[in-house]
Amino acid sequence: MRVTGEHLTVAVRGRRLLSGVDLVAEPGSTVGLLGPNGSGKSTLLRTLAGLRDPTGGQVRLDGADRRTLPRRTVARRVAVVTQQTPADLDLTVRDVLLLARIPHRSRLAPVTTADVEGADRAAERAGLPGYGDRAWSSLSGGERQRVDLARAFLQDPDVLLLDEPTNHLDVRHQLDLLEQLASSPVTVVVALHGLDLAAQYCDRIVLLARGEIVAAGTPAEVLTPERIAAVFEVRAEVTIGADGRPDIRIRRPS
Ligand SMILES: Nc1ncnc2c1ncn2[C@@H]1O[C@H](COP(=O)(O)OP(=O)(O)OP(=O)(O)O)[C@@H](O)[C@H]1O
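Output (structure tokens, whole complex):
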């Protein structure tokens, strides 16, 4: 499914959080949103996800205005993982995973054994075997994040919108997740802070600063030392590898 943001503007009390942002995520591609703190990455993701209405512009899914599509269709086809999962949910890991199947079940249909088995298998795939009965609130930050991501995949969506999904993950789980995203047929838009990981795994990068797009294109086109210095105010050495992707080394300030 193609995700398009057309000239998206978001303003709150006269302050522009996004200004005329255009973005296209082609079916099956992985698009990375990069930018400094407060540059508008979460606002853009939440707007694409329909969690926030744009003040101007529109979001299209395969060309159709998102607002004209039935809610249930969108809930089935678009999975969202934001940074704002409440910590005090009185739910088990299995309960949280079962939420993924709600848009796929007919109304009032009970949870089936197959649903429960599917949820437990998803926990196992997330590296959390036997965690089904564990209280959600007892999980570590990284474990919660892995369950959240497992829930998104269990939804079997066409589009995944992820806000900093690696921020609690150890390095191996970061790589596992990005491998999974890059190799899946799902269209992914993902906000990331790691320039090196984004460069290695994303098909395209959209670089934001102060609510506007500074650059968009392949990682090699966008992540040049000059642009990294201008936007992030750090010095970086960039070499292009045999695969055409930039290898980014952030230097200690001298
Ligand atoms: N509801 C709101 N009211 C006022 N300002 C807001 C609101 N939501 C976000 N902002 C502001 O909009 C700007 C963009 O925020 P956003 O969370 O989109 O940035 P971000 O790029 O995701 O940042 P980070 O890297 O820190 O997560 C910030 O300056 C933030 O303070």
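The radius of gyration is 19 Å.
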